[in-house]
Amino acid sequence: MTEKPTILITGGAQRIGLHCAQRLVEDGYRVIITCRQARPEWQDNPLQGIEVLLADFSSVEGIRRLIDTLIERRVRLRALIHNASIWDNDDQGADALQQMFMVHMQAPYLLNLASDQLFDPVQVGDIIHISDHVAQRGSARHIAYSASKAGLEGLSRSFAARLAPRIKVNTIAPALIMFNEGDTPEYREKALAKSALGIEPGPEVVYQSIRFLMDNPYVTGTCLDLNGGRNLK
Length: 233
Ligand SMILES: NC(=O)C1=CN([C@@H]2O[C@H](COP(=O)(O)OP(=O)(O)OC[C@H]3O[C@@H](n4cnc5c(N)ncnc54)[C@H](OP(=O)(O)O)[C@@H]3O)[C@@H](O)[C@H]2O)C=CC1
Ligand SMILES: Nc1nc2c(c(=O)[nH]1)N=C([C@H](O)[C@@H](O)CO)CN2
Known about the structure:
Elements: E1 6-9, H1 15-26, E2 30-35, E3 50-54, H2 60-72, E4 77-82, H3 94-113, H4 115-118, E5 125-130, H5 134-137, H6 143-163, E6 167-174, H7 185-192, H8 204-215, E7 223-226
Parallel strand pairs: 1-2, 1-4, 2-3, 4-5, 5-6, 6-7
Enzyme class: oxidoreductase
Function: Catalyzes the reduction of dihydromonapterin to tetrahydromonapterin. Also has lower activity with dihydrofolate.
Catalytic activity: 7,8-dihydromonapterin + NADPH + H(+) = 5,6,7,8-tetrahydromonapterin + NADP(+); (6S)-5,6,7,8-tetrahydrofolate + NADP(+) = 7,8-dihydrofolate + NADPH + H(+)
């Protein structure tokens, strides 16, 4: 029986990453996700068809440990989705920028540099970076976050040039996709009003964007704006 193509999603234990992992399993892929801690609910309800690798990107050692594990297991990736992210304000100053640099730039950078040992040498592969609409415009309340996401978009363009034609490399830049539990009604109303379409679309639209990029043989080095017309207001 032919082996299922494998997709790695970083930070895939919750929210957008987990939704996309579950949808890709439904599509017939073998999916590996990373997280820092296994969820207690997995004891009684293990994730179906999803392999979990523990990985903490707050240190270079933690990133390299993940890469070494993938190489030791001779994983051959069809796609690598850089989804892991810290969304925090700038109250922690230097630590905020350092940690967001590690997660949004250092981890994608080191994993992408290892792509010749991680991807199937025969079939075309995809690397997809999940950025944010604010990367290109800045954000007064999330300076380190938007700057590190802008760095991620720069990495994406450079790796697209370096890894072509074997691996397509792209970015998806969402605006609001899904709120967090603690978001107040006032915050939600304000956030919805920022885009022309004014909706909280949910994680399916990110999955649809991933499938578009994976299924299209002629798209690399691009950034897919997934923002509900946030730029129109
Ligand atoms: N939600 C939204 O509306 C929007 C999201 N995005 C982007 O989409 C992507 C997914 O968003 P969302 O699902 O809300 O993400 P989350 O805020 O839920 O974070 C995703 C995962 O990142 C992982 N992560 C955080 N720090 C580290 C670390 N040091 N090492 C390893 N993993 C880490 C966490 O893993 P762990 O399980 O270990 O805690 C977490 O589960 C992100 O890149 C985000 O920036 C962009 C615009 C809007
Ligand atoms: N890692 C994360 N990044 C972002 C999140 C999140 O929850 N985790 N949320 C947003 C918001 O949706 C924002 O776009 C509007 O509230 C942005 N990035």
